Amino acid sequence: MNVFGFAGWSGAGKTTLVEKLIPLFTRRGLSVSVIKHAHHGFDLDKPGKDSWRHRKAGATQVLMLSNDRWVLMHELRGAPEPTLEEQLRVLQPTDLVLIEGYKAAAVPKIEVHRAVNGKPLLYPDNPHIVAVASDVPLPDSPLPRLDLDDTPAVAAFILDYLECR
Questions:
Q1: I need a surface site. Which of 3, 40, 97, 144 has the fewest CB within 10 A?
Q2: What does pTM read for this prediction?
Q3: 6/43 Cα distance (integer angstroms)
Q4: Could you tell me which residue ranges the Molybdopterin-guanine dinucleotide biosynthesis protein B (MobB) domain spans (predicted)?
Q5: What are the residue ranges of helices labelled H in the chain?
Q6: What angle do helix axes 14-27 and 151-164 make, rounded to 10 degrees?
Q7: Is 147 helix (H, G, I), strand (E, B) or coil?
Q8: pLDDT tens-digit profile of 80-118?
Q9: In the beta sheet, which residues pair with residue 34?
């Protein structure tokens, strides 16, 4: 599977960019999966729902399904967080896996940078960043600078980059 990531500070627009890229890739006939890493706890369940009640009762895994979708929730219950490599093995084969987060993972990634956040660029300290998608020019950057609002150009860069590898 081809794996490509996105890194950046909170509020930079990573999720929005990934959301806009997915239909561009699927229109080309590619199957796309996404792995999103959160640095804080999250919950897909609603308190009181059956799956929530099963997890709260102590189940390690709860698989819910319907004729529209299925989801497998796995409670770590103190176990270490799985690595990106372990998570990739869980996915069904797909043409392209987009990774949001996992800043230090050894996968090629685009840094998403929005000047208004006032945060420093990540690429100088991250050898896996191969380009920066930004809303401002970056005259001193040795990396390609992509316009954050030109999603087709970002998609083309990713496909070109992966083709060259």
A1: 40
A2: 0.86
A3: 22
A4: 3-135
A5: 14-27, 50-56, 84-90, 151-164
A6: 70
A7: strand
A8: 988 899 889 988 899 999 999 888 899 999 999 999 999
A9: 98
Q: How far is residue 122's CA from residue 27's CA, in Å, rounded to a whole number?
A: 31
Q: How far apart are CA 56 and CA 76, in angstroms?
A: 13
Contacts of 44 by beta carbon, 8 Å cutoff, 6+ apart: 71, 73
Length of the chain (residues): 165
**Would strands 70-74 and 61-65 be described as parallel, antiparallel, or unpaired?**
antiparallel
3-state helix, strand, coil in the chain (%, to 5): 30, 25, 45
> Over the range 124-145, which residues count as b (16 or more CB within 10 Å of their CB) and which as e?
eeeebbbbbbbeeebeebeeee
17 touches 148 (CB < 8 A): yes
Given a contact cutoff of 8 angstroms between Cβ atoms, the answer to whether 16 and 109 are in contact is no
Percentage of residues of the chain with pLDDT beyond 90:
58
> Which token pair is 52?
């929530």
Position 40 scores a pLDDT of 61
Secondary structure class of 97 (helix, strand, coil): strand
Q: Are 96 and 30 in contact (CB under 8 A)?
A: yes
